[in-house]
Amino acid sequence: MKTTKFNHNTSFNPPAPVIDVSLLRPLSREVTNSIHISALIDSGADITAVPQGVVDRLRLYPVDEILVAGYTGETVRELVYSLAIVIANLKPQIVRAIGYRGDDIALIGRDLINQWLLVLNGKQQVFEISVND
Is residue 69 part of a domain? Predict the structure, then answer.
């Protein structure tokens, strides 16, 4: 198992588990065509979400459509896209993600979190992600 340790992002109040990721088309091997963005690890999110601008810049095609509900409880239909995500020195993972209008930060949902061993140490403001090699 490969483990990578990260510090919480202290620009959030309270500090939050945020990582820098690279996003690219799912079958692309050219990291030079990737988009680098910060991503909040959000255990309250069912699915990973990326800003719609990322979807547009990568020219991703929808692969599905689902109903999603935000924190207000309102449900809306959203397109689902397939993309590759690269976190630090971990191997790329293909995920299904929705695009959203808003911040320039991605949200990593339980669809990806549940593939990891994630250890959050709030007191030390660090976290670890472990994945099978």
Answer: yes
Q: Let me know if residue 4 belongs to a domain.
A: no
Cβ count near 77 (within 10 Å): 8
Q: Which residue has the tokens 């007191």?
A: 123
Tens-place pLDDT, residues 90-120: 888 999 999 988 778 999 999 999 999 999 9
Q: What is the pTM of this model?
A: 0.91
**CATH number of 43's domain:** 2.40.70.10
Q: So what's the pLDDT on residue 50?
A: 97
At a CB cut-off of 8 Å and minimum separation 6, what does 74 contact? Answer: none
91 domain residue, yes or no:
yes
54 φ/ψ angles, rounded to the nearest 5 degrees: -70, -45
DSSP 53: H
The span from the first CA to the last CA of the chain, in angstroms, equals: 6
Residue 132 domain flag: no
24 pLDDT band (50/70/90 cuts)? very high
